[in-house]
Design brief:
The complex is a heterodimer of chains A (289) and B (286). Chain A has helices at residues 45-52, 77-83, 100-110, 115-128, 145-157, 175-192, 203-209, 227-230, 234-239, 246-256, 270-288, and strands at residues 2-11, 19-29, 34-38, 60-65, 68-69, 84-87, 163-167, 195-200, 212-217, 220-226. Chain A has 289 residues and is of the alpha/beta class. Chain A is globular and about 70 Å long. In chain B, the strands form two sheets. In chain B, strands 6-7-8-3-9-10 form a six-stranded mixed beta sheet, with helices on both faces. Chain B has a four-stranded antiparallel beta sheet with strand order 2-1-4-5. The longest helix of chain B has 18 residues, at 180-197. The chains are: A alpha/beta (289), B alpha/beta (286).
């Protein structure tokens, strides 16, 4: 559905501030995938996401949506931006209208829909993020941090996008708020078949939610594959300052101390890890009897 | 005597209607009594709305008690004449580094605090150099703060407080907006200040992994202190912490799950290393 072909991006080329932020990055994201885009600050991941809907134009290379270059003449950028919704970091800072409902209407309004359609879409979007009628007439500033963020996501959903790109949607939230937001994103993915790209620097988040992981480092795509497979590169991931989920680290420490575990165990979740560790001990017990 | 004494502290927020009269109150702190020893590293853990930030603002006299008393070095925050001295002794660092930066050059940023409390000019520059060294930011002395990373900005903000020679630094979620690297930088700086300079640290956070190396962890919920002990004891309350919307370290959670399944792992495991050692011991016994 979305394809990056040899994308390069250079900030302020041919000036003393020239910075090569993205270097020859290629990947394809299929409809309905849940992808985590990982990397620490300065890895190029934020520059990369601004390419998803044409906010930045590649210095070279191209970005394709359903096979067509998004910068070609026959493509309407307005349409691309409603099909590929980006939720930026701290999206609640972008709430500006006098009521929650009007704020969520802003996207559909820009798409040129009638007032009735705007409201219909806004209400549906608010329902899907768990904000009921009682929120419609509230000022966005009366909401709690987690609610504001959900309202901001509704603003993007109201455009009925095919893909949702979220830049660190859990930043600054407490554990409860984080679980709520990520649970909501998973629900949207499962129930609506939305394509999700989750930008994060939390390995645990990626392990819990994503099917596939793309790792960026110094502007280059370093790893790209199924979540479980990418996290087997524990040493390299640690070297580039990202690390691996805690449970994966425990298994690699145990292996280094001579304990052998079968292939295919679930190292990514606490429940799976506990099960594998239990089986391992009980197996030893059985062996001795 | 303890450095900070909090006695039966209550704090209420008032809601006003359109005519300006009080239409409701919300009790943010309910009868909190605590004392913090000089030189300790104390973490305060709680979800949003638990009252932890309100508590922090009382220690710096940014808030005054609705009822009860807060004393820093024996000085009561209710005593208006003592407020400047309290703020000198107990410095505060906030969540968003961008909201705290006011100068164009790092050294001026750090000088702002000591200048405000009337330190003589020459001594200010001495203190600035010293403070930047303690947070590992000497190389950035002449840089512009807005070109720094989040972690570096927070270290500059910490240096600004250190330059006032405080006895205590209170940090209100200083890492909430930082990436893992920035978070580690800030944590390392805080532990160094605590160990080498004996500065008392009060770290307010909802990241439980930042609290496992603290001397003491205080858990707040709904305006009250619900747990207060060394980290290994606090984190042995796995169920309770989860019910209160908090995380426990993954190693602790894993040990808990295995204990539930009947394995004989000890309580109080916090780190991955501790877990691995305990698990291997168990394997050897079988």
């Amino acid at each position: 559905m979305i394809e990056f072909r040899n994308v390069d991006y250079i900030y302020e080329p041919e000036t003393p501030y020239e910075m090569h932020a993205v270097k020859n990055v290629s990947f394809t994201i299929e409809a309905g995938e849940f992808v985590a885009l990982l990397g620490h600050t300065g890895s190029g991941k934020s520059t990369l996401i601004e390419h998803f809907n044409g906010l930045l134009k590649p210095s070279s290379g191209s970005v394709l949506f359903h096979g067509t270059d998004i910068f070609s003449k026959e493509v309407s950028m307005k349409e691309i931006r409603s099909k590929i919704g980006i939720v930026f970091q701290y999206p609640e800072h972008q709430l500006f209208e006098s009521t929650v409902l009007r704020d969520v209407c802003f996207g559909p309004k820009n798409m040129g829909l009638s007032e009735a359609e705007q409201k219909e879409r806004a209400k549906a979007a608010l329902t899907s993020v768990g904000l009921d009628e009682s929120y419609y007439e509230m000022s966005p500033f009366e909401l709690s941090g987690g609610e504001k963020r959900r309202a901001a996501i509704a603003g993007v959903l109201a455009m009925e996008p095919e893909a949702l790109i979220l830049d660190e949607p859990s930043a600054g939230l407490d554990p409860r708020g984080r679980d709520e937001i990520l649970g909501l994103i998973r629900k949207l993915w499962q129930e609506r078949g939305l394509t999700v790209v989750l930008v994060s620097h939390s390995m645990d988040e990626a392990a819990r939610y994503a099917q596939r992981v793309i790792v960026m480092h110094e502007g280059v795509k370093k790893f790209d594959g199924p979540t479980r497979e990418v996290f087997t590169h524990a040493q390299e991931l640690t070297e580039i300052g990202l690390g691996v989920p805690s449970t994966v680290r425990i298994f690699s420490m145990l292996r280094a101390r001579g304990e052998a575990f079968p292939e295919g165990i679930d190292e990514l979740s606490v429940e799976g890890a506990a099960q594998a560790l239990l089986t391992h001990v009980l197996h030893k017990e059985g062996g001795h009897v | 005597m303890a450095l900070i004494d909090i006695l039966h502290l209550f704090h209420s927020f008032y809601r006003y209607d359109e005519s300006g009269s009080v239409s409701g109150t919300k009790a943010a702190l309910k009868d909190v009594t605590l004392s913090i020893e000089a030189g300790s590293f104390v973490a305060v853990l709680g979800h949003n709305g638990s009252g932890k930030s309100t508590l922090a603002k009382h220690i710096n006299a940014l808030f005054l008690p609705s009822k009860g008393d807060v004393k820093v070095n024996g000085r009561n925050t209710r005593d208006a004449g003592e407020v400047l001295l309290i703020r000198r002794d107990a410095g505060m660092v906030f969540q968003n580094p961008d909201n705290q930066m006011i100068a164009n050059v790092v050294e001026e940023e750090v000088a702002f605090g000591p200048e405000n409390i009337g330190v003589p000019t020459e001594e200010i520059w001495e203190r600035v150099g010293d403070a930047l060294e303690r947070v590992g930011m000497t190389a950035y002395r002449m840089h512009s703060p807005d070109r720094l990373s989040g972690g570096q900005k927070q270290r500059v903000a910490i240096a600004g407080v250190v330059a006032m020679k405080p006895q205590c630094i209170i940090l209100d979620e200083p890492t909430a907006m930082l990436d893992p690297m920035g978070r580690r930088e800030v944590l390392r700086t805080l532990h160094e200040l605590n160990e080498k300079e004996k500065i008392t640290i009060l770290l307010i956070t909802h990241h439980m992994d930042e609290t496992i190396d603290a001397d003491r962890v205080i858990v707040m919920d709904d305006g009250e202190v619900v747990l207060d002990d060394v980290p290994s004891v606090v984190f042995s309350h796995v169920e309770e912490l989860r019910n209160r919307g908090l995380d426990v370290p993954v190693a602790t959670q894993l040990a808990y799950e295995l204990r539930q399944k009947g394995l004989d792992l000890p309580e109080g495991i916090l780190s991955e290393e501790e877990f691995v050692e305990a698990y291997l011991k168990l394997c050897a016994e079988h």
